[in-house]
Amino acid sequence: MDTCKYHPLVPTSFHCNSCEQDTCSECVDNSSSHGQPRCIRCGELLESVANSDNVEPFWRRIEQAFKYPLNSEALMMIVGVSVGMAVVSSLPFGALTLFIITLALYGAMLNYSFMAMTLSSDGDFEPPTAVDAVAGGLGLSFKMILMIILMVGILIVTALQVGQVAVNLLGLLFIVGLPAILICFAHTGSIIQSLNPVMFVNLMAKVGFPYAVLLGLLLVMTSSVSAISAIIGNDFAAVSSVFQSIVANYYTLVMFHIMGYMLYQYQDRLGFTSGNDITGYDHERNPEDTLLAKVGVFLKEGDYARSLGLLKEGAATFPTNKKLAEKYFDLLLLLKQHKALATYADIYFMNLAREAQMNRLYSQYRRLSLVLPKYKPQSSELRYQLAVTCEQQSNFKAVVWMINGLHVDDLNYVNIVQAYQLLTKALQALGQDAMAKKCGLLLEKLKQRMPAKAPKEAARPAGKAVFDAQPVSTPTIPPAKVEFGATAPEPEIEAAPESLPPIEFKP
């Protein structure tokens, strides 16, 4: 089985005749306006090569198929729907309300299963997120009910017009062809086309014997649900109902994943190419994901310059994309791009602070400090936020480094008092009592210059990310610099705030 050059465990989907290399559907550039996948390295059109000869048969992946639902998202969906149905059925709802809620829950599970088939047919063997299954569940339930009504209607008409023998044969055809009918529905989104015997019988014929294997698996799983019901009995009806529902939903997801993988395996026979939207669901890759795919390829090729250029462009174009920001920051660190780091770190850290990712903020700052030990943000608020998170991690030297001289750089900073309170505690924790005492005197002066009744924006709690500090204000007459450890006159309490001496703390 041929595999992707950049993902050795993933089967090949495309071949580049120019570069003479095989790739999977994730390692292509599908940003073309015509939707034709191109090679990321050279830009040439790719040739689809995925077929049943170079893809592992689905019957050899039975173990992986049964492990497919053992994912946090899938399990949350399976258990949530099962318990939800049991709870709803025990509540005193009216018949119509109960019917609608049950349909919505059933539809959510069915929608989730169809999404699993969609992703599997596209070569993505990770379950979808549970949140995505909520939308459209009720509509899908009604479509399934309509499909069943049409099947029953076709059987009734056949019985009236032809006879019982024809009804039996047609009913058997519907039962045997049910997986093919579902696959056709996922492929076309049309109930009429899905129930067209020409379509689903043609699909069964093209797949051949493996389709019989699929039917056998379906029969075994359906029988096991009945066996579980018989073992549990009726003594614990509620528990039995929930457990049977969990098992049934688990098997449903397994079967839909296998059907999706079968589509992926036999895509050449069935007339479509993995990577296209074959099921009617919108799973096209967005520009950010395409850019990340390009970066991934260039990184594995060792082309760091192109990777860095793409990430720089992406970080500017999509500033809210966390993956792009993370990769750009990581690559700047790896390549030790000091100048770019000094600029981008402020933006990256500010976004982390805005999102209250304080642990991540600290860990990334520690990594940065190994490359830029003298890094200090331009923003007063970011300096304060870094000092807060460093203090929480007992990194008191970093607290001193961040707050030191803040009153000189931005005397009107809204959290200036809280910042120097933090600095005083850090100096005490470091055993720098003399410096802590001088910092305390400065803190008293800062408190005195605060208005009697601070405005609302000045009373924000310490630690909250606020990025609207006032511009840096420079004193009219810059006072002389005094370092701790040097002989200097004691600052006077009654000194005017504008003449506060700048103080350096050397940790």
TrEMBL record:
The keyword Transmembrane applies. It comes from the Bacteria. Residues 488-507 are annotated as: Disordered. The chain crosses the membrane at residues 68-87, 93-112, 144-163, 169-188, 209-232, 238-264. Keywords: Membrane, Transmembrane, Transmembrane helix. This is B box-type domain-containing protein. It comes from Reinekea marina. The lineage of its organism: Bacteria, Pseudomonadati, Pseudomonadota, Gammaproteobacteria, Oceanospirillales.
